[in-house]
């Protein structure tokens, strides 16, 4: 049985993009983000926007990857990938 204290301890970071809590598993030897293959351009933009040490939650990373993949097909006019990376996701 998981207590509220256990749940709070598992959320050790706040996503700088959306503000949501998440657990960064990088120090646990595996994090969900390890399985995402982000393009060089998107990784450079994330580093520039959020700093090299900042982690984003998996939901934001997946959303940004999907947007980057979609933009790589036919490029969207008027919206740069940096603009998309800076915009937080819509929350219910």
Order of helices and strands: HEEHHH
Question: Level of helix content?
Answer: 40-55%
Query: Rg to the nearest angstrom?
Result: 15 Å
Instruction: Please state how the strands of the largest beta sheet are arranged side by side.
Output: 1-2
- What distance lies between the first and last C-alpha atoms, to the nearest angstrom? 28 Å
Strand fraction equals under 5%
SSE class: mainly alpha
General shape: globular
Number of strands: 2
Low-confidence stretches: 1-9
Protein name: Cysteine-rich CWC family protein
Region (Disordered): 72-92
Short description:
The protein has 92 residues and is mainly α. It has helices at residues 4-10, 40-50, 58-72, 81-86; strands spanning 13-14, 21-22.
Please tell me about this protein's structure.
- With 92 residues, this protein is mainly alpha-helical.
- It is built from four helices and two strands.
- Strand 1 (13-14) and strand 2 form a beta hairpin.
- The protein is globular.
- The two termini are 28 Å apart.
- This is Cysteine-rich CWC family protein.
- InterPro entries: Cys_rich_CWC (IPR032720).
Key phrases:
single chain; about 90 residues; mainly alpha; two-stranded antiparallel sheet; globular; disordered N terminus
Helix and strand layout, with pairings?
Layout: H1 4-10, E1 13-14, E2 21-22, H2 40-50, H3 58-72, H4 81-86
Antiparallel strand pairs: 1-2
